[in-house]
Amino acid sequence: MNFEKELKKRNTNIRACSVQSDIPYATLYPIIKGQIDIGDCSYQTVAKLARYLGYRPDEIVYEKEDFQTFRNNLHHRIKQNELDLILQTVEGDEVSTYMRHEDYLKALYLVATVDYLSKKNDIPLCDKFNDIRNIKLEQPYYVGDSAFIGTSREKCIDEFLRYNIFEGDLYDAV
Predict the structure, then answer these.
(1) Which of 106, 26, 9, 118 has the alpha carbon at shortest distance from 67?
(2) Where are the chain's structural domains?
(3) Does the structure show a pLDDT above 50 at 136?
(4) Residue 144 clears pLDDT 80, i.e. is over it
(5) Whole-number Å distance between alpha carbons of 10 and 143
C-alpha cells in the first residue's frame, strides 16, 4: 500500500498521523516513506496505523506473490470450477486488494479472466468492475508461452487485450 498516497487522500501528514494514531514519529516515518515493510512491524503498530487509515490490519499488510504463481493458481481455480471462480471474485475483495496495493497487473488479469469466463458461460458482466475496465497497462504484458511474443493479436483473448495483456490460454495449468 502506498501510505503517502493514503495520507494525501486524507489531507494529512506524517506528524499528524503520528499524533492521532499514537505511533511514534520515528517509527512511522520509515513506514510511510516505504523504507520499512509494514509486514516487518509489530502487530500493535500495524493495528494502530490500520485503524487510523480505516482498514483492517490484514488489508494494509501485503505480501506480493510473483505473477507466474498468481497466474498458475488462478488457472487451477478455473480448472476446478469456472463458475465458483466468477462468484468468488465478484463477491470477494481480491480485485480491490490488488488495486489498493497498486498491483494493477493482477487486478486487470483477474477482471479479464472473470469477463472472459462470464462471456463463455453466457453470464452478464458484473458492473462492480466498471471503473477498472477503463484502465489499461501502459506497456504490453506478454503472458504464457514465449512463442506468443511478437505474434498476431488474433491468437490472444480479447478480454485481456483490452488491458494490454497478451494471453492466449487460461487452461494451461499443470
Answers:
(1) 106
(2) 3-60, 67-166
(3) yes
(4) no
(5) 37
CATH T-level fold of 3-60: 434 Repressor (Amino-terminal Domain) (1.10.260)
| pLDDT tens-digit series, residues 30-60 | 999 988 888 888 999 999 999 999 988 888 8
In percent, the amount of the chain with pLDDT more than 70 equals 94
- Residue 6 C-alpha cell reads as 493514503
Instruction: State the cell numbers at 27.
Output: 517509527
C-alpha cell at position 53: 487509515
Please name which of 83, 3, 11 lies closest in space to residue 45, comparing C-alpha atoms: 3
Tell me how far apart the alpha carbons of residues 33 and 68 are, in angstroms, rounded to a whole number.
Answer: 28
Question: What is the pTM assigned to this prediction?
Answer: 0.72
C-alpha cell at 89: 471474485
Phi (first) and psi of residue 166, to 5 degrees: -100, 100
Q: Is the pLDDT of residue 149 over 70?
A: no
Is-contact 32 7, C-beta < 8 A? Answer: yes
